[in-house]
Amino acid sequence: MLNFLKKNSDNQEKTERCFDSSKPVADHIAVIMDGNGRWAQKRMLPRIAGHKEGMNNVKVITKHASKLGVKVLTLYAFSTENWKRPTDEVNFLMKLPVDFFDVFVPELIEENVRVNVMGYKEFLPAHTQKAVENAMEQTKENTGLILNFALNYGSRAEILTAVNDIVALAKSGDLPDEVDEKTFSSHLMTASLGEALQDPDLLIRTSGEERISNFLLWQIAYSELFFTDKYWPDFTTTDLEEAIGSYQLRNRRFGGLKDTTEGDA
Ligand code: V07
Fold it and tell me: Quick one: average pLDDT of 146-175?
């Protein structure tokens, strides 16, 4: 009897969490694409095979997000901490933007996707920088989904860069006495997305970890968080719809008002 009740309530929860095409989708979705190495190890493959599979999934999820009407997809591709990984793995990762450019950019152009890259690009190898520049240049006229890669990105470093930029402005006498949220945000890397799209509505992390790991700390102040045990290469378009469905359900609890105060008393 108890089991029956439990099953019933699980089913109900699943139905409620379903994507609803009549409700607004999350405009800006950020993803921590975790679990590529573990996906490979589970299959007795080298970790780099997981990264390659993860890259293929970027294309699949981007296309589906674009179809659903998502405006920005921000993907954590390489963190400032990832340099500590074995040299061979880092070298392989640094080639992925090149591969991605060759294999997927023509398809994404057809899909009207614009590629943007934020992060400390100047520290990337020359061939990676070139691929990034090409991807951004060749898609700059596109007006559809913005595929925003965080590459050599770290949120604390981003915040400190913003502080230092503001200090430099203040020294040159170019700043009002007080810095407000809007001014501060305009110095963050997400400012390149345009004023309305800087903060993610929904943050997804795959692979079972429930941490933020130095990703968009300022920008996720009001974001809904969605964690799944699936490894990134196994994360499907249905999983994306489930994450958006969960966002739509939680958003509905605020009565359709854009809530910017903590707690929902
Ligand atoms: C990377 C594939 C996705 C899973 C997570 C880590 C590995 C796409 C890019 C990329 C970046 C910039 C760009 C075009 C493509 C990428 C890295 C790793 C370093 F302009 N996937 N992907 N870059 N992975």
Answer: 95
pLDDT confidence of 204, banded at 50, 70, 90?
very high
CA-to-CA dists, residue 223 to 26, 31, 151, 194, angstroms = 10, 12, 21, 18
Q: Is there an atom of ligand 1 within 6 Å of 148 CB? A: no
Q: How confident is the model at residue 48 (pLDDT cuts 50, 70, 90)?
A: very high
Nearest CA to ligand 1 atom 1: 77
Residue 55 CA to ligand 1 centre (angstroms): 6
CA within 13 Å, CB half, 168: 7
CATH architecture of the domain with range 26-142+152-222: 3-Layer(aba) Sandwich (3.40)
Ligand 1, residue 58: give the atom nearest the CA.
Answer: 3
* 108 Cβ closer than 6 Å to some ligand 1 atom: no
pLDDT at 264 over 70: no
Q: Which atom of ligand 1 is nearest to the CA of 51?
A: 7
The domain limits of the chain are: 26-142+152-222
Kindly report whether the global pTM for this prediction surpasses the value 0.85. Answer: yes
Asked if residues 154 and 79 have their Cβ atoms less than 8 Å apart, the reply is yes
> Which bin fits 31, alpha (ψ -120 to 50), beta or left (φ > 0)?
beta
